[in-house]
Design goal:
Bound molecules: adenosine-5'-diphosphate
CATH class of the largest domain: Alpha Beta
Structural class: alpha/beta
CATH superfamily of the largest domain: Glycogen Phosphorylase B
Number of domains: 2
Radius of gyration: 23 Å
Distance between the termini: 15 Å
CATH topology of the largest domain: Rossmann fold
């Protein structure tokens, strides 16, 4: 074995269920694209493998074409063909796997929330590895994300490494331990994993429910694990040597108010006129009252799921109206009763010219709302990292957040004297009751209306904070390098 001693570029493959902007549901998509781009900029060869969803944004892919080869992969006792498409997304080479399986796994007109998600993603994980195996590439790092592709870790070590495809080390990032991918143990065998071997407390058996837990398998079978929590603490503790918490970044090219093509007017920290113009434009576009220019615009852009603090989001809408502000909610829910509940709130407030509730996923509108808003509310019950607070700050919308997880690592209260002044960048509250949020909003409103110069400086400061991927990507790079070095026996 010859080793190249220096830290030359690595070959990194991300296997994921989402990537911005082609297939985005939430923050996972932003991370795959943002981290991938940052690693590519640092000189690594980065490739991405995604399912070929029927509902993808095809216009975001350049040079999309189907390869001549068909990859056959195992599922539930049979081999199935997969068409493999290639294309470029955000400058990154992407492979899209299109299974020729009668269940039409990725022809469902939505990304998640299907009754057979466990099967869909175990199929995809196996097919993605099969593609890499058959390509004969010598890959250094396979990076899988969330439970949907955590199958990759045990599949790699139990099935592929023994076939000589063993150059890679596995990195597993769990963006949200709320979703762990559990199922009855026998379901693990669909993708070819050995249930008897893996249904054990120290392997893939769920720590509480006697089911099989794929996120746990990701932790146990990976060389590197990043971020964490939620019921798997014991497993994480056991594997703490390989476990690291890294705060995500945001893609500062996609999220840049001075070049953002979705905005009515581009702007920067030194030219806030443009931000005001976006506010006027959005208020008109959404039919909000435009007479009173002193009203602050409060925004919330989120998946509507319990994690995000639904009762507090609802409360923030009413409280903002009571304080004389305006509120825009852009949200969509994968949970039908939650979607209906917010449709009810929207109906009730339809005639209120200070409130707009828009219940859909809309990338372009999200950019306009970040730019137009003065304040951005994130009252999450828990938040593994959270990206919207960082995007909001970059667009000069001051975050008002509940102190939890990644939110308390990135937002520091303007009035908290225990925190150095230069770090104070927003407003925070601790409790999950309405009262704590109300007083936090009142404090923010008070600065906004009584101390406009202080507010303006806060906006400018927030816009200049560096939330880019450069530093988090360097941390990933170090982890990758040391896992690779360890594998080659040079540490
Ligand atoms: P999560 O991953 O839990 O959804 P994050 O804060 O990490 O939360 O990431 C959310 C991402 O999804 C952000 O880029 C945000 O702008 C985007 N987003 C959420 N809901 C919507 C929506 N309804 N329309 C457009 N973008 C949305």
């Amino acid at each position: 074995l010859t080793l190249s001693g220096n830290s030359s570029g690595l070959h990194v493959v991300h296997i994921a269920a989402e990537m911005a902007p082609v297939a985005k549901v939430g923050g996972l998509a932003d991370v795959v694209a943002g981290l991938g781009k940052a690693l590519q900029t640092k000189g690594h060869l980065v490739e991405i493998i995604l399912p070929k969803y029927d509902c993808m944004q095809l216009d975001q892919i350049t040079n999309l074409k189907v390869l001549d080869v068909v990859i056959k992969s195992y599922f539930d006792g049979n081999l199935f063909s997969n068409n493999v498409w290639t294309g470029t997304v955000e400058g990154l080479p992407v492979y899209f796997i299109e299974p020729q399986h009668p269940s039409k796994f990725f022809w469902r007109a939505q990304y998640y929330g299907e009754h057979d998600d466990f099967k869909r993603y175990s199929y995809f994980s196996r097919a993605a590895l099969e593609l890499l195996y058959q390509s004969g590439k010598k890959i250094d790092i396979i990076h899988c994300h969330d439970w949907q592709t955590a199958f990759v870790a045990p599949l790699y070590w139990d099935i592929y490494a023994t076939r000589g495809f063993n150059s890679a080390r596995i990195c597993f990032t769990c963006h949200n331990f709320e979703y762990q991918g559990t199922a009855p143990a026998p379901d693990l065998s669909y993708c070819g994993l050995d249930v008897e071997r893996l249904d054990r407390a120290d392997r893939m058996q769920d720590n509480a429910h006697g089911r099989i837990n794929v996120a746990k398998g990701g932790i146990v079978y990976s060389n590197i694990v990043t971020t964490g929590g939620h019921g798997l603490q014991d497993t994480l503790k056991m594997h703490s040597r390989k476990f690291v918490g890294i705060l995500n970044g945001i893609d500062t090219e996609t999220w840049n108010p001075s070049t953002d093509r979705f905005l009515a007017v581009q702007y920067s920290a030194t030219d806030l006129q443009g931000k005001a113009a976006n506010k006027t434009f959005l208020r008109k576009q959404l039919g909000l009252n435009t007479e009173d220019t002193s009203q602050p615009l409060v925004a919330c852009i989120t998946r509507l799921v319990p994690q995000k603090g639904l009762h507090l989001i609802r409360h923030a809408i009413y409280k903002t109206a009571e304080l004389g502000g305006q509120f825009v909610l852009l949200g969509s829910s994968p949970v039908p009763h939650i979607q209906r509940e917010f449709e009810g709130v929207a109906d009730q407030l339809q005639k209120n010219n200070n409130i707009r509730i828009i219940l859909k996923y809309d990338e372009a509108l999200s950019h306009c709302i970040y730019a137009a808003s003065d304040m951005f509310i994130i009252p999450s019950m828990f938040e593994p990292c959270g990206l919207t607070q960082m995007i909001a700050m970059r667009y000069g919308s001051v975050p008002i957040v509940r102190k939890t997880g990644g939110l308390s690592d990135s937002v520091f209260d303007f009035d908290d004297e225990k925190i150095p002044v230069e770090l104070r960048n927003g407003f925070t509250f601790a409790r999950t009751d309405e009262q704590d949020l109300s007083s936090c909003l009142e404090r923010a409103f008070s600065y906004y209306s009584r101390k406009p110069m202080v507010w303006k400086q806060l906006v400018q400061k927030d816009m200049q904070i560096d939330f880019g991927w450069d530093s988090p990507a360097s941390q990933y790079e170090d982890l990758y390098q040391s896992a690779v070095a360890q594998a080659r026996g040079v540490t």
